[in-house]
Amino acid sequence: MTLLAVAAAKAMMASSAFVLPFAKAADRVLGPRGCCLTFHRTAPAELWERLPNRDFYVDADFLDRFLGYILDQGWDVVTISEALRRTTSGQPSGRYVNFSIDDCYRDTFELLVPVFRKHDLPVTLFVTTGIPDGTLPLWAAGLEDALLHRDQIAVDGETVALTSLEQRRAVFAQIASRWDGPQAAGCYASFCAANDIDIDAMHWKHAISWEMLEALAPDPLVEIGAHTVSHARISSLSPGAALHELADARLRLNQRLGLDVQHFAFPYGRAADCGPRDFALARQAGFASAATTRKGLVNTGQDAFSIPRNTMNGAHRSFAAMELHLTGLSGAAAKVMGRV
Prior knowledge:
Layout: H1 2-13, H2 16-30, E1 33-39, E2 41-43, H3 45-48, E3 57-59, H4 60-72, E4 76-77, H5 80-88, E5 95-103, H6 106-118, E6 123-127, H7 130-133, H8 139-149, E7 152-155, E8 158-161, H9 165-179, H10 184-194, H11 199-206, H12 210-216, E9 222-226, H13 239-257, E10 263-265, H14 276-284, E11 289-291, E12 310-311, H15 319-326, H16 329-336
Parallel strand pairs: 1-5, 1-12, 2-3, 4-5, 5-6, 6-9, 10-11
Antiparallel strand pairs: 7-8
Helix pairs in contact: 2-15, 4-6, 8-9, 13-14
């Protein structure tokens, strides 16, 4: 019965007929507030439909429409720096949204930033420095690429025929679940060898480069922050190792891009992934703020080192789904279900 109730609630909350009128009414009650939205990758609509890991991507056409919707509804789109200024100004702050991208891939440069430029809106890029340095294996991207473009793959000594989009998505989920963790790099290297994949060429097919970041750094619409060196789960590290992940990423970005990087986002970012010790380490590393992926709204007096962010699941291509974040309903639901 509980599962049926949850399913019914999800269906109702995904309905534009229910959510959009509710959102308009909620605005009068909720008043000024901020909402931070985050995701990882962007894909053209025609490619998004075929991607084995498509929930990880936001459809660029939907993003374009959503930015127009946000502006039509009277929201301001701001940087993290401006969001924090509003939380401490003591003045009416209006309704504002920050969009941030974690990790940063080639499509961040080629596809995502141009969508924001089209609307003359800012976007925050939280860069994992191991990606442009070429030291972080992009195993999920490489696995997905192989599943997308091949009719069969060799994995764990077996040959798997790929016959449909649904099967490719299922195979991705199965393999990613087995690989995820410290063993991922070794599993991916073996996979590339078994499938005659040039692991370096595959990396740069998907990775953002320092040259791309250097081109983005002077853009007033682009705010660059740090997302560790190796995308480590900070809570799992010793204090010394955790501090190196934070401080070294900031130093690398500062030196390579000529910036004074102020903002940080925790990989994974839920309650089990970062806590008070880690917030203190972010401050010690020289950051002015740290963002999580705990759902919720940004209100006056927000702690700068535990900023809530709402993840945009690529499958949720509707304004109604986005309004659940903008009104704080997704955050309230997450707390009720213990998903914090």
